[in-house]
Design goal:
The chain is of the alpha+beta class. It is built from 28 helices and ten strands.
Amino acid sequence: MADSAGIQQGSPAIGAAGLVPAAPGAGGTEGSGAARGSARIAVKKAQLRSSPRPKKLEKLGVYSSCKAEGACKCNGWKSQNPPPTPPQTEQQSNAVNLQEPCRSCSHTLGDHVTHLENVSEEEMNRLLGIVLDVEYLYTCIHKEEDADTKQVYFSLFKLLRKSILQMGKPMLEAQESPPFEKPSIEQGVNNFVQYKFSHLPSKERQTIMELAKMFLNQINYWQLETPSQRRQRVPNDDAAGYKVNYTRWLCYCNVPQFCDSLPRYETTQIFGRTLLRSVFTVMRKQLLEQARQEKDKLPPEKRTLILTHFPKFLSMLEEEVYSHNSPIWSQDFLAGAAGGQIPIHTGDTPLYYSTSPVSVDPSTCGSVSPARKAASVLEPNPAGEKRKPSEPLSHEENKRPRVVGDIPMDLINEVMATIADPAAIPETSLLSAHSARDEAARLEERRGVIEFHVIGNSLNQKPNKRILMWLVGLQNVFSHQLPRMPKEYITRLVFDPKHKTLSLIKDGRVIGGICFRMFPSQGFTEIVFCAVTSNEQVKGYGTHLMNHLKEYHIKHEILNFLTYADEYAIGYFKKQGFSKDIKVPKSKYVGYIKDYEGATLMGCELNPSIPYTEFSVIIKKQKEIIKKLIERKQAQIRKVYPGLSCFKDGVRQIPIESIPGIRETGWKPVGKGFLKGLLYPVKKTEAPGYYQVIRFPMDLKTMSERLKSRYYTTRKLFMADMQRIFTNCREYNPPESEYYKCANLLEKFFYTKIKEAGLIEK
C-alpha cells in the first residue's frame, strides 16, 4: 500500500531537483569530483577486463610474488623496459612475453603468475578490479594532505595489496563490524516520520516520505570534515569519538564508492544518532543556504517542497536529534504498543513499527516522558495516532468552520517561501512583554540545561539510587515551597507508589515538579503538589512543567486534570487553562480525590490535537505568516480609485460589488452561498463531509417536487421538511458563520408567515 510504504533510498533528491552538490572537503555533499573519479575507474576496469589474457597476466604479475624455485623474495614482477611516455598504442602493448625477466629478481613473468594458470576469467577479472583500486589508492595517498585520512588510505592500500597476493577477498579487520549503533539513522528517521506524521492523509504523508528520502540521501552522499578540521571548529567536542566514526565512514562508506572491491555500506544504515549529531547542524545550514542560492534554478514542481517544507522538516527533526528524551532513538520504539504493524522498507531490510506512539509505563520507576515536539504547516500528529482509512470523520471535526479556498494555497506557499527557514523568524526577546511564558525554559531544555522525567517509587523493583535521590529532592522542594502542608503528608504522597511526579532537573538536582495520581478508569488525574524552588521562579519553568504533564497524559489517553488550588495558586492554574467549570461528572471523582479545606476545585480539559510544549512557537510562526499575508494585502489595496460620480447623475442606489476596489479588500457578498444550499441539494465537492454529518438532507427544490407530487398530506409533514433545512444548516455550520445566522433569520421569518396564515396558533 502507498500509505504504508517506507523511506526507500534512491538518487540524491536535492541533486535531482536541481541543486548542485558542493565540492568535497570540509563537510559537504560529495561532489562531481568523486563521481568522476569513480566513473574513470569503472571505465578502466571495463577496458582491462576486455583485454587478452596475456595482458591481464602482465598486470597481475606486477602485484604477484615470485613462485620460482629457491624461495625468491620478490613480491612483484617489474618490467625490464618501463612503459614509455607517451605509452605505446594498444596494438603494440598487447604483445606480452611471459619469458621476459623481472628487473628485480631476474625470474620471468611466467614465474610470477604460475598460480593464475588455471584461474577462471571471472576470478581474474575480480583480481584486476582490486589492482586498479590499489593504484587509485596509491594516487590518493600521495595527493592527500590530511594525516588521518592518509593513514586510512594507506591501511586500505595494504589490505588490498595483501588480498591480491593471497587471492582472497578484502576483509576489514576491526573490533566492531557494521552496524555501529542502533537504531541507525535510517531507522531513526523512519521512527520520526511514524511518530510525527502517521495521522496525515496519504498525499501529505507521501510528501513527508519525499522529504525523508531527500534527507537520507544527502547524508549518504555527505563528505565528513576531517578530525583536524572538526577540532578547529568545535574544540570542546569528543575528538576521539569523532575520529573513530570518521575512520569507519572512510573504510565502509566513502572509499568503497570508488574502490568497489571493498564492501560498501550506506552511511544511514550503519551509523546512528552519534554521527548524526556531529554533522546535523552544519549539514542543515549548508543545505538551506544552498537551496536559497539555487532557488531560481529549481524546477517549479520541486520549489515548494525544498524551499518551504524541507526547512520545517529539518527543524522538527533537529529537535528530536538533540533532545535527551526523544522516543525515536529507542531500540524498542513502538514495539510494545498495541495496534497493527506497518512494514516500512528501507533498502532490503524490512522494519516493522506499530501504529500507536511509544507508551511510557506509569508504573515503571524513572520512566522518561517523551515530549511531542513542534508542529508545522504540514500538521504532524502530536499524539502519533493514525486514523484508520475506514474510520469516518468525527461529528465535531465536520462541524469545524470551512475555510477551504479562503486563502489560495499558491499564496500560502509563496508566503511560506519567504519564511523558508524557521530559524530566520526573529526571536522575541526573553524580556519582552510579548515573549511566551515558557520560551526561556523551552530554550534551556533544547540546549540540555534542564530535563524532565516522570518518576515514582516502586515496591516491586529494586530501588534506583538516582530516582530515590530525586524523590528526596522533590520532597524538599514541596516542603519548602508549601509550608502550610504537613511535611509528613508530602513525604507519604511523594513516595507513595500510586503517585508519580514529573520532576524538573537542572545540573543534576531537582528544582521543581508536579506530583499527581492517575485514575485511568475514571478518566482524570489529580494534581496534588506543584512547585518550583524560589530561586528558579519567574523563568517559565512552571508553565513548561505543566505543558510536559499535559503531553504525558495525552499519550496515556487521560484528558482531564483536577486539583484543589489555594488562593495563591488559583492565578497560576488559570494561566495553565484551568477553570472552576469542571467538565468531569461529579460521580467520577467524588470519593477518589482528596478534599482540602479552604481550597477551590479547578479542572482542565486537554485537547489531544495540541502539542502543548511547542504551542507558543506554533502561534508565533502563524503570526509571522499572517503578518506577511497582511503586508501583501495592504500592498494590493493601497491603490486609490476615483470617487463615485454616478450619484450626481441621479442614481440613488448601486450594488456594493460595483464599487471600485471593494472586492480587492477581500469583501464577499453575504448569504448567496446559503441561498444556493437552501434552494438546491448540497454538492459533495462544495461541502466536504456534509453527508457524513447530515443524515437527512433537505432543500427547497426537493420540497417543491414533493409538493407537486402531493407528498405533503398534512401540515406537519410540510413544516417538518422546512424545519429540517434550518436544523441541518445549524448542525453543519459553526454558530459564528453567516450560514448559521441566516438560518435563524429565515426560520423566524418562516414561522411569522405561518402564524399570519393561521396555519399554527399564534
